[in-house]
Every structure is written in C-alpha cells, then in structure tokens.
Design goal:
This protein has helices at 2-29, 39-42, 71-81, 134-148, 162-173, 180-185, 189-196, and strands spanning 62-64, 67-69, 91-100, 108-115, 122-128, 155-158. The protein is α+β, with helices and mostly antiparallel strands. The longest helix is centred in the N-terminal third of the chain and has 28 residues, at 2-29. InterPro entries: RNaseH-like_sf, RNaseH_sf.
Length: 197
C-alpha cells in the first residue's frame, strides 16, 4: 500500500513539473497575456486519473455513412441488394435498433434489418458509433434498410420507434413543407437528408 502511494505521489510530482514547463513555454509564446495570468485557473492539474480505454482489435470494418459493418455484414447487405426486383407489391423489411450500457465505456448501439420475403430470410446487422441514443440506433436500422434494398425496389420499412416514424414524416416525406431551419437544426440532420435523397 505504501509503495502504491509513493508511486502515485511521484507521478503527481512528475505531472506538476510537466505542467510548470508547459505553462512557462506558453508564457514565452504568448507574452501579451495580462500580468495576472493565473496558471491554476487556465491550466488546472487534474488529480484524478482516468484509465485510457483502448479498443480491442477486432475484424476490419466497412463504413457506409455512419454505419459500421464487418466484412460479413457488408456481404449480407450486398446479398440483399442483389435480390431480384419485383414491384408487383412493395417488399416489407423489418428494422430494429438497440442501445446497451448507456453512460459507460461499454456503451454499444446496434441495428438489424430482416427481409422475410426471400426463400431464405436475409438479415443485415451492424453497429454505429458517436452520441449514444436508442433513437439513433433505430434510425440507423431504417437507414440500413433503405441502403440494403435494391435501388429500384419499392419497400415498406416496419419499425417500432414512434419518434423515428414522426421525424421521418416531417423531415423526409414532408421535407419540402418543413422550414430549412427546422431541417438543419434537427437531430441527425445529415442522416435525414441522406434518407430523403
């Protein structure tokens, strides 16, 4: 225990020395600062240390917009895109999103899309990063469904998030009637613009 405390004390002292050296260098580079330059207020030294989270190496990923797909998942998306087009009736795709461990380092957002119209049901699944919310995971599922369908195929996407459905109505279907300011200030405006295109 004493050894651990001694090591922590030495680390803090080393950080203080580095801190003073950086502040001295900043004062030399920016001499115009007023004389009452308070180094403690401008460059506080944190006493708490947070472990640096290093992601574990995994399979290479393919990024399609904000979607992160493994090579296997990207192949399943291409398999769905390559299915025959039949517009006698719209194809129904089911989409869902999920958020687990919010507020922790293990936070994860995943989505899935299923096409039951094929002889063998086709599924696309993946994850997304950035700000974590369940609505974002659901939205990425909707985006994956649109991207996975053959471009000429008429589709209906069924999902269970009312907020995403309402925003789709306002920001995609009725886009021309929505003020540009409301479109640009909406959450995930870029993704909604992509869906509109």
């Amino acid at each position: 225990m004493e050894e651990t405390l001694r090591v922590q004390k030495e680390q803090r002292e080393a950080l203080r020395v580095q801190h003073r050296a950086i502040v001295t260098r900043l004062k030399e580079l920016h001499p115009r600062h007023k004389k009452g330059f308070d180094t403690a207020a401008c460059f506080p030294l944190q006493e708490q240390y947070q472990p640096i989270h290093t992601p574990s190496p995994g399979p290479p990923t393919t990024h399609i917009g904000p979607l992160c797909l493994s090579p296997l998942e990207a192949a399943s998306m291409r398999a769905l895109q390559d299915t025959p087009v039949d517009n006698a009736s719209p194809r129904i795709l089911y989409s869902d999103g999920s958020l687990i461990n919010p507020g922790t380092e293990e936070v994860s957002q995943a989505f899935g899309v299923v096409d039951l119209a094929q002889d063998t049901p086709l599924m696309v699944k993946g994850c997304t990063d950035g700000y974590a919310s369940s609505a974002k995971a659901e939205l990425m599922g909707l985006l994956a469904a649109v991207l996975a369908a053959p471009p000429e195929q008429d589709i209906i996407v069924k999902l269970d998030n009312q907020k995403v459905v309402e925003q789709y109505q306002r920001l995609v279907k009725d886009r021309r009637n929505t003020l540009p300011r409301k479109r640009f200030r909406s959450t995930y405006a870029g993704t909604w613009a992509t869906l509109s295109q």
